[in-house]
Amino acid sequence: MRPLPKSPKEITPQWMTAVLRNSGSLPASAEVSEVTGRQLGEGAGMLSELSLLSLTYSGDYQDAPATLVAKFPTLNEVNRGIAMDFRVYQREVRSYQEIVPKSPAASPKVHLADIEGDVDFVIVLEDLSDYRVGDQVEGATFEESGLALEELAKLHGTFWGKVDSEEFEWMPRFSNSWNATNMLEGSQASWEQAAQNFDEHMPQWIRDIKEDYFKALPELQKHLDKEPVTVLHGDFRLDNLFFGKEPHHHKMTFIDWQGPVRGRGPVEIAFLLAQSTKMEERRAHEKELIQRYLDSLQAQGVTGYSFGEAWEDYRVAVLYQWCFVTLVAGSMDQTNDRGNAWMTEMVKRNVAAIEDLNCLELL
Questions:
Q1: How confident is the model at residue 85 (pLDDT cuts 50, 70, 90)?
Q2: 8-126: which CATH topology?
Q3: Pick from 286, 242, 247: nearest CA to 266
Q4: How far apart are the first and last CA of the chain?
Q5: Which of 63, 74, 155, 178 is most enclosed, with most CB atoms within 10 A?
Q6: Which fold, 132-362?
Q7: 49, burial (CB in 10 Å: exposed 0-12, middle 13-18, buried 19+)
Q8: Which residues pair with 50 in a beta bridge?
């Protein structure tokens, strides 16, 4: 199937036939006769381009998919630079090759995940357009957040305390790694621009902690890298979550494995609740949702992780996630209206969570 196509326009029927046969989705008696594509998800794929592929077949195709989703590197040079700094394309391909198949967490079917060099990648996935996609601008409800954390715990539980080996060396640790350094330096470089871009949503007390925050950031990273650690998805936000509408659907599934890292589970609880969940829902159900995560984690065989420990990890993670907010809000392309809208909500929600949980005392 190499060389890989560089864009949807380069996908040929012959290439797609080979992909589907290799994934077991197309018998030898059938072939793809036509492929057409259209761009998907304005503002959803900030670091990649998404295309919906419509397929026409000749021969005996039976249950072969009528549509698929293909993912390619972004054409936006600013965003592509960020993607290269954080090696997101290599990490996503390897996640679909090595992590997703080992976890019981729901996932769309992966027909192909491959990369040539550092940038030229293609991922071909099951089309989830008959699911309901989460809307990060609107924000997650209590039930959506609960379903998401239950599924997340299936991923975390699979790898809990089992990632300190050569098998996972390609995936950075949460602290003392190139990823940790890039997060710190990227946030520092982006802070002032983020404050300018989202001036009305960044109160003075947040601006005043800048110096103390960056002094504390390595220790926050270190705290969130204490054993036992697990595989973190890395971008567990609502725009990447899909909710089933039909009886045969998964209740919830997720995509976009561009930022996997090894760290403590509540890093992702904080990412979801403090940046994607509606403020009023988080405030009303925060502890209940964390307990729901812990119950699901225990169902995966994880023991010895108390609510008190998880709660403190969560508070540390809420404060830590502010560096992600400033990195994104100060460096990503602001001309995309949809992307700008979800970044605005991300800023507002994380500020509120830091204040509600009195996280500044952790500095």
A1: confident
A2: Phosphorylase Kinase; domain 1 (3.30.200)
A3: 286
A4: 51
A5: 155
A6: Aminoglycoside 3'-phosphotransferase; Chain: A, domain 2 (3.90.1200)
A7: middle
A8: 40, 71
Residue type, 113: A
Both tokens of 109, joined, read 């079917």
Q: Would the pLDDT of 287 be above 50?
A: yes
Q: What is the reported pLDDT for 43?
A: 44
Q: Which of 39, 83, 30, 85 lies closest to 61 in space, CA to CA?
A: 30
- Provide CB contacts within 8 A for 278, sequence distance 6+: 138, 139, 140, 141
Question: In 10 A of CB 308, how many CB atoms?
Answer: 8
- Give CA separation, 196 vs 170, 334, 362, 363, in Å: 36, 12, 26, 24
Position 336, amino acid: N
Residues forming CATH 3.30.200 domain(s) in the chain: 8-126
Rounded to whole angstroms, the Cα distance separating 39 from 53 reads 9
* Beta bridge mates, 113: 123
Is residue 118 over pLDDT 90? no
Sign (positive/negative) of CA torsion 35, 118, 81, 258?
Answer: positive
What pLDDT does 338 receive? 83
Question: pLDDT tens digits for 3-41?
Answer: 999 999 999 999 999 999 999 999 999 999 999 999 886
